[in-house]
Amino acid sequence: MSTRFPVSNERIYAPYKIAALVEVLAAQGIDPADSLKGTGVTPDEIYDASVMTSVRQYALVCRNAISLSSDPGTPFRTGARLHLAAYGMYGYALMSCLSLRDYFRLGVKYHPLATPTTTIEWHEYPETSEWTFPEAFSTNLPHEVQQFLLEQQYTQHVTHLEDVAGRRCPPLLARFSYPEPPHAPLYTEYLGCPCEFGAEHCQLIYDSAILDMQPHLAHRHSAAMLQETCDRLIGEAKTSTGVSGEVYQVLMRKPGAFPSMETVADALKMTSRTLRRRLEAEGTSFVTLVDDVRCSLATEYLKTTKLSTDDVAMLVGFTDTANFRRALKRWTGKGPKEIRDFG
Length: 343
Hints:
Blueprint: H1 16-26, H2 32-35, H3 55-68, H4 74-81, H5 89-95, H6 100-109, E1 121-124, E2 128-132, H7 143-165, E3 173-175, H8 184-191, E4 195-196, E5 203-207, H9 220-240, H10 242-253, H11 261-267, H12 272-281, H13 286-304, H14 309-315, H15 321-332, H16 336-342
Parallel strand pairs: 3-4
Antiparallel strand pairs: 1-2, 2-5, 3-5
Helix pairs in contact: 1-3, 1-4, 3-7, 4-7, 5-6, 5-9, 9-10, 10-13, 13-16
């Protein structure tokens, strides 16, 4: 079953995406105050580092853009303007990573830090590597707003990979699950690849041969430090927002105990069915949160203690060390030794 991606109203993101879109609209002669109408954000605030905004506020600016502008290139130009340097720690962590494989993996892991407007997945196959957007049209936003956000999202991905690689690195193919729009030539212009419409899934497909490439700003020490910071920021978000934050805190009260969903639901004074539904509304699940806790604990034990891998596996709930190693690789892309050696 597909969960509905939440259009969050939590004001926890810097307004860099709002600023980029407002600038693109201003170049078309649209007053920033009109672009921001109804958001509660002023033109001065979009450049104030202390101001926090929500995904819902950004979606409202997109809706304003659609009604104010007749230029179908607006979302593409906005995506092309959103370079990774605008994303703070998230952006620098991606730019300093040690391979493009790490870039793809970390782009998914740290996506919650980037004012996420849709969910993303990354899959590596022998010949291709694919970004997939499984819930691109599963919010309550109007279809035209969701399409606007997707056009921007695809262009952002192309822009970000170019930032990391230090050169043009276009996809092999872009797929879209909706019919070909009248402005389809803009897709090829901005994405730099053939585009298919009416496809089963929304996907950006790359040649797997690029995965071992080293980013031009790759730096082992910076990568480790920035990824540790992003891990901490992700952890803080999990423990401080929504029902998922409450679940995370319950799970961390007795590290290694891993109570059942029914037990956690009782602790939060709700039924397990209600807990499942509320977690789905936040774009997560109980199993995902348990895995997050296991991953956090395992990483901490490996980095800060001399416990054997067998002991760490047992402490985070694995009776089979081989299964633990596979899970750790899935969670972090690293084995126990790599985590101990490099963090």
